[in-house]
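User: As part of a screening pipeline, I want to sanity-check one entry by hand. Below is the sequence and the SMILES for zinc ion. Please return the complex as structure tokens so I can compare it with the automated output.
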Amino acid sequence: MSRFGIVICGVLSIAAGGMFSFGIDDPARTTTQPTQPPVLNREKRSALDSPVQYDLTPLSPERIAGLVHDLNPNERAIILNKNTEPAFCGLLLDNHETGLYTCRLCGLPLFSSNAKFNSGTGWPSFFQPFDPAHVQERIDTSHGMVRTEILCARCGGHLGHMFNDGPPPTGVRYCLNSAALRFYRDDEDLPPESRPIETQIAYFAGGCFWGIEDRFQQLPGVLEATSGYQGGKTRNPTYKQVCTGRTGHAETVRVTFDPKSITYRRLLEWFFRFHDPTQINRQGPDVGSQYRSAIFTIDNQQREQAITYIKELSDTPRFLGRRIVTIVEPAGPFYPAEAYHQDYHRKHGGSCPLPQY
Ligand SMILES: [Zn+2]
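Assistant: Here is the complex for your manual check:
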């Protein structure tokens, strides 16, 4: 433990009781919030950037306001107003049980007991977060110092600060307020908000995968859309091989979604707005079996829903006199396309807006 680190935390302790700006709205406060300083590590992320698939979608102000009601005054002062609890007073400082430290406000897992160490500072200390995507960093110039503040990446709640004087293997010290955390022992059940998302998969082929992928990615509840090849015989096909039409694959988009946020039926509805399902082995200027309209289903439930929906759709005025040729078949191996095909529109512009009908 360096003297520098002790001094820094000591200053924070002295500062406790002050009112600071913060990343989320505290309904209890009425003062005007100053402009937020720049965020260091918060780039545009999909919910699945967390490798273990936690939902990192920022919480709405209404949701946060509801959660804030459960905080006691001390927790509010720390999480919302960026106060610091006095050194050696936090309830989790001497906790040596194995388990998970989650955000007190929103429940996102933040630190594991595996990374906890005794820094001697008087505050719970960790050498790495549970997942780097779960902890947001921000420059903090308060109190005449330049420090790195850490916040929950999902709710924006203040957690503490990080310093470059930690132990191996990272050399980083995450200095936490106990009041910003909630601890769950390994043998305790985690609440839903602290668990990974239970995702489902769906596969859709509707012509060039660039546009289909781009549009699915815009739907709330879709966590990831990946361009690839499916429905053919060749193993590990390349784009060049698929373009010959001889591998049997269709350009397909694998959609990973949160069924609590968007249903498979809803995905079907969007899919049939994203392309023209009456064209056989083509979509506009793209001609060939690799551009066929197809739904690859992972189970009987998806298959029944897809067939039922196509029947319903066929009876609507939109398809009067035009037959839907979309093929519904069980999903075989899906091969992700080459990296340059992924997020093509996002990388090159030309994103397709969601259809309005
Ligand atoms: Zn949080």
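Points to compare against the pipeline: The chain has eight helices and 17 strands. Residues 103, 105-106, 108, 152, 154-155, 157 surround zinc ion (CB under 6 Å).
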